[in-house]
Write a structure and sequence with these properties.
Elements lengths: L2 H8 L12 H5 L9 E5 L5 H8 L3 E6 L2 H14 L4 E4 L12 E7 L8 H10 L1 E12 L20 H7 L4 E12 L13 E11 L2
Parallel strand pairs: 1-2, 1-4, 2-3, 4-5
Antiparallel strand pairs: 5-7, 6-7
Amino acid sequence: MTQTVWDQRYDTPGYLFGMEPSAFLVAQRHRLVRGMEGLAVADGEGRNGVWLAGQGMTVHAVDGSAVALQKASRLALDRGVTLRTTCADLVTWDWPQAAYDAVVSIFLHLPPETRPAVNQAMARALKPGGVLILEAFHPEQLRHGTGGPSVASMLYDQATLRADFEGLLAFDLLEDGEVTLDPDVDLDNGHGGIGHTIRLVGVRAS
């Protein structure tokens, strides 16, 4: 979807995807250390970036929607943390290189013609030994209809992610399966309930 469409979706009084962090991200808390430099990719209204900042990390959030990032900044202010934001198209953004200890990508979905380059840019944004934490919808999600793209080519399986990150990451975790989606997400917007996701934790090669 275009920036204009996302701006329109986010232009509501509430938070489209809730204010609480991804359950999968929280489950990876043991990999995150106070003082780390973190990048929250496609962070929208800031639920994950703000949580990372609350763990004592220095966080940079990037998203294509200026409206979403304004809400992210308000959420950071409400939570008493600092969040640096950049509004950019992830496909054309001049990605930092070897700049972050952790990169977090939660439910970012791109078409096959742009996905590999963006995924590889995320990996290259990590310092050697840095960690990528990623969750996205798997093609089996189409059976559930509880969120995510309705186009199979924009959903990710293990073979897709292995190919995208080959030579860049060592996988600590790569699995998919049914999960209960984050309960803070607005069910009226077609999200929440049972879904099928793929979850990845990878470490940047030195």
